[in-house]
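Long-time lurker, first post. I've been practising inverse folding by hand and with some scripts of my own, and I keep getting stuck on stretches where the structure tokens seem ambiguous. Below is the full token string for one chain I'm working on. Before anyone asks, I'm not after the true native sequence, just a reasonable design that respects the backbone. If someone could post their per-position residues I'd love to compare against what I wrote down in my notebook.
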């Protein structure tokens, strides 16, 4: 894993990045909002998008509450530390030695389509549940998500 303290365009202070300063670097490519899966210890970016990403504007529709409503959403710092951002991501491109996930091949994307769609559904359900709790209303009943062959729930 890359040493985050080594720099993102010089916006490092004592080995820590200021999250707000890093947000300004975003190029709005939307690749950080791709559903990521881990296969044999390797993270893959899939062509499946977070259901909260507007594909036209490439902006998050729940941005102000994204961490609250989407438990799988990673901020810039966590995404770098976890190796979730693509190599060309502005958050990571200035970090020496950083290697992000690779894009899944079309065959891999097809093979894991059901799991990716299940992840999208879980993200939607989490947002509905959390909003319902905030409004003191009962959430929708959970939907069982299929796992890929030999896969584990994460």
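-- Answer (accepted) --
I ran through it position by position. Result:
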């Amino acid at each position: 894993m890359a040493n985050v303290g080594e720099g993102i365009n010089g916006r490092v202070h004592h080995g820590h990045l200021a999250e707000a300063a890093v947000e300004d670097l975003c190029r709005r490519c939307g690749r950080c909002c791709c559903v990521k899966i881990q296969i044999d210890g390797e993270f893959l970016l899939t062509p499946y998008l977070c259901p909260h990403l507007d594909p036209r504007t490439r902006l998050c529709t729940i941005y102000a509450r994204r961490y609250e409503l989407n438990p799988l959403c990673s901020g810039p710092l966590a995404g770098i530390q976890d190796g979730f951002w693509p190599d060309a991501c502005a958050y990571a491109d200035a970090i020496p030695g950083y290697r992000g996930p690779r894009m899944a091949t079309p065959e891999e994307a097809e093979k894991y389509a059901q799991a990716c769609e299940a992840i999208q559904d879980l993200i939607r359900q989490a947002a509905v549940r959390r909003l319902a709790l905030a409004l003191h209303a009962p959430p929708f009943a959970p939907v069982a998500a299929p796992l890929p062959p030999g896969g584990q729930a994460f």
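A couple of notes from the structure itself: The chain has one domain: 4-134. The chain has a mean pLDDT of 75. Happy to go over any region you disagree with.
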